[in-house]
Amino acid sequence: xxxxxxxxxxxxxxxxxxxxxxxxxxxxxxxxxxxxxxxxxxxxxxxxxxxxxxxxxxxxxxxxxxxxxxxxxxxxxxxxxxxxxxxxxxxxxxxxxxxxxxxxxxxxxxxxxxxxxxxxxxxxxxxxxxxxxxxxxxxxxxxxxxxxxxxxxxxxxxxxxxxxxxxxxxxxxxxxxxxxxxxxxxxxxxxxxxxxxxxxxxxxxxxxxxxxxxxxxxxxxxxxxxxxxxxxxxxxxxxxxxxxxxxxxxxxxxxxxxxxxxxxxxxxxxxxxxxxxxxxxxxxxxxxxxxxxxxxxxxxxxxxxxxxxxxxxxxxx
Amino acid sequence: xxxxxxxxxxxxxxxxxxxxxxxxxxxxxxxxxxxxxxxxxxxxxxxxxxxxxxxxxxxxxxxxxxxxxxxxxxxxxxxxxxxxxxxxxxxxxxxxxxxxxxxxxxxxxxxxxxxxxxxxxxxxxxxxxxxxxxxxxxxxxxxxxxxxxxxxxxxxxxxxxxxxxxxxxxxxxxxxxxxxxxxxxxxxxxxxxxxxxxxxxxxxxxxxxxxxxxxxxxxxxxxxxxxxxxxxxxxxxxxxxxxxxxxxxxxxxxxxxxxxxxxxxxxxxxxxxxxxxxxxxxxxx
Lengths: 317, 285
Hints:
The complex is a heterodimer. Chain A is built from ten helices and 16 strands. In chain A, a hairpin with a 2-residue loop joins β1 (11-13) and β2 (16-18). By secondary structure, chain A is of the alpha/beta class. In chain B, the strands form three sheets. Chain B has a seven-stranded antiparallel beta sheet. A seven-stranded mixed beta sheet of chain B has the order 11-10-9-8-12-13-16, with helices on both faces. Chain B has a two-stranded antiparallel ribbon with strand order 14-15. Chain B is globular, with a radius of gyration of 18 Å.
């Protein structure tokens, strides 16, 4: 459905056809059940589910949320019902909407990632996998994989061999050289790179004299991290060939346009949904309005535009 | 399971912020869609949002604050909240002037079970009185008698008495320093109150500091009464997607205040663990 204006919003993300370039980020949309009370899910390009593990996880001890300037810290700890319950109960529900569903998977070992990929491989309604090697809130696995190129590659290879689904790898910004990790993921067979997960952070309760979060540290998200995310999208877009999903502090259509111009092929909206449940479909409308105002025929024309302009390729070329 | 009313996002216009006791205020907001849907014991996510960035989402404070409905006037389209000012988010609410626009999401949560007959006992500590005036009004109009025990540290901090009386409740006040009403904490006064009930109350609801809820639950359990408690938690969204508002469940694992609560049977929650997590020194926002 074309929200407004005549511009073509369709994008292809690693073989997944999205009616528009706005997905909802993992962990900020559950499995969609609560969100159908806010809007018709068909208004967004696709859904990335909550991080899903092999066995159910209860999650981290509370408090799990702390507000920060222009964002929030969370230490949810991958609370989820486990992949079997997700396949049995959540995917059939989401399938009804006929939009791409990408399942975010997280493991503690390479074998767990492969097992998750195998379990989801032929599940009707699953359009792709987002491999989470970047969760800062779990003791084992998660970010430990995403901070090392060899470990990232090992996970990606194992997932690649276990599924024919498009494989997107979600990277952590908590590294010195994001390009090295992204290259390793691409070389190991990733079809797309998702940038970025949260930045590891800390908040202290000055009245209680202790860390505010039960797990001590948490992942920082929201507008506070947008410049970091944009920089990483820019750096990685200049170094790899597979498409990038940009994520980090996107609140408006113009934020999304920045990510596209930096080199992302599509974007994911995360924390914005928590404070404005209608953020993702609103951002679709705002991108369409921007395309119309600026006279772009296709959203694809924006992808990497700032890079081309800087290189002297001219605008709209 | 009861069907919840539809959730709405509404730009509400502030009618008044009035400090009622030091550090606490009553916020009245014209929000007709929310007022028409709100039920006793439910809450809304409320954010004082300067209209930055596209007119819809501001950034300071970033998250809404979960606030129980202290009053709702369905015909007038007004919802009211009782707010303890403790941090950035609540300070922003306290700085509101008539005409300011707030962003409200809700109504969320399950609310209290209906009390239609017999005697309903309400136990409130401090700002924990917030959800009770609408509960008392609904119970009284359905034919129940309502007795409310309202505790505070000292006389200047006693909250909600007038609103509870207006709702038709009989109110017993206690203060820790004895400066108003009976002397002692609610847990000191509650046994005397239960003795005076004769046949005893038929239902009991409590809301207040976690350190108060656990002993209140024990006292009422000894009296053979099932208690429902309304809990507070730090929340990201308020509607179930972030999983941020977990509280320890009695049977292990976690319950979520926004979806499973904020009202729980006291025996479903590990109230001792909640008290440890949000114990002395750790204050809500």
